[in-house]
Amino acid sequence: ALASCAAAQKDTIVQMFGWNWDSIAQECTQFLGPAGYGYVQISPPQETVTGDQWWTDYQPVSYNLQGKRGDRAALASMIEACHKVGVKVIADAVINHMTGSDAGTGTAGTSYQHYEYPGLYTHDSFHHCGLEPGDNIVNYDSREEVQTCQLVNLADLDTGKDEVQTAIAGYLSDLMSLGVDGLRLDASKHMAATEINGILGKMTTSPQYVTQEVIFGAGEPILPSEYTGNGNVQEFRFTSTLQDAFSSGGISSLVDTIPGESWLASGDANVFVANHDTERNDASLNYLSPSNTYTLAHVFMLAYPYGTPSVLSSYEYAGYDDGAPNSATGTCFGEGGVNSWLCQHRFPPIAGLTAFRGAVSGDVSNIQKGTAQQLAFSRGTTGFVAINNEDATWTGSFSTGLAAGNYCNVYEGARNTTGDCAASFVTVDDQGAASLNIAPRSAVAIYVGAEAPTG
Ligand code: LAG
Ligand code: CA
User: Fold this and answer.
1) How far apart are CA 239 and CA 211, in angstroms?
2) Residue 417: which residues within 8 A CB-CB, separation 6 or more?
3) To test the ligand 1 pocket, which listed residue (97, 112, 152, 156) has its Cβ within 8 A of the most ligand atoms?
4) Is residue 336's pLDDT more than 50?
5) 334, pLDDT greater than 80
6) C-alpha–C-alpha distance, residues 270 and 99, integer Å
7) pLDDT at 335
8) CB atoms within 10 A of CB 256
9) This prediction's pTM
10) C-alpha–C-alpha distance, residues 26 and 126, integer Å
């Protein structure tokens, strides 16, 4: 069944992967706020192990807010800057575990050992599941193993313990006190849903938005649906379905198959074309995907009323471990010429469709299909999109559902502040029809609220 809640939503999240706090503050003001994004999701803000690899962020050493991306003061002022332009902040919260590394000194200078984190956790704070060798998770068919053994050697917190829940809740409450609005709970599948509920219940303020990472695995006992009582859950079947459809399977049936029968309900789902894990492990499309499929999949995600969408904003990498480029400010168009930040949130089609999403309401209607790789639909009478994921032009007269008029094609970018279209416009006639020649591997998107200037 389709989403019942098909109202206009300023709900698009941008995952600012690897961005430092000062740069996010600047980007909120310069672009994200004016573009109508709802949230930024920031990298884990707490003290971590040191190293150049991106994944050091996922090895907490303490809950001191001094990580690679900035200190407590920079975090607080970034939150303030984003709020000022109407953008809320979601923190990536790593609470299932601490470090995998044996011993060292963290980004805030804290000395630690595996299972010993001064003033915070000791040996007894952790699960020691007893699995040989090394207590590591092997069998995902075992609920107990997945939740009480170690994910890639990461010291697994005993999240069932009252004092552990209290310590985690203290950290999360501290984030809230700085103005954080929401949480992405990392590795949620590795904690029982009831334990997450216990942690959230111990917080002094409740987050306005929660999304939980529970990667669906066919046949596994732990299901994403178990976690909906705590907030949204990430629907990884959306990600893999888009990957298959845009790469080869065909997109025309997506309006019939999403959401799949056992998927999360729209209001419970957080969806994305790619996240920081899937973009590097072939579990999704990514910026290197051929034939513009990565961008076109975003067009579908943002136009289609299923789930709360996240747009990954990341950087080019040569190898799996590569950390974010080192730049203090001006991350998208920084001084010093070319950098390897991708700034997907600024891609004209993605920004244009975010504006579309913020304006349209109504259910999917006026469904029109060409080949298996061509799909058009309207959002009631408020917006229309046609996606041509084919190497040939898609030509025809399309029922748009819209009243007669000239509308900016926001696939080419959002209408600018002076009211001009980014590039061209589409004419809808008295019957609601538009004659279109949609270029190969391209799209057209129009909506009420982005009319072309007259005269
Ligand atoms: C997540 N979801 O459940 C994150 O989305 C994912 O990015 C995290 O893994 C994981 N949970 C733990 O928070 C990442 C990297 C791993 C990395 C891990 C810890 O994907 O590759 O592991 O963060 O930094 C690395 C090494 C491992 C090693 C481990 C511990 O790659 O070989 O065993 O560190 O030292
Ligand atoms: Ca666990």
Assistant:
1) 15
2) 34
3) 152
4) no
5) no
6) 27
7) 42
8) 7
9) 0.97
10) 39
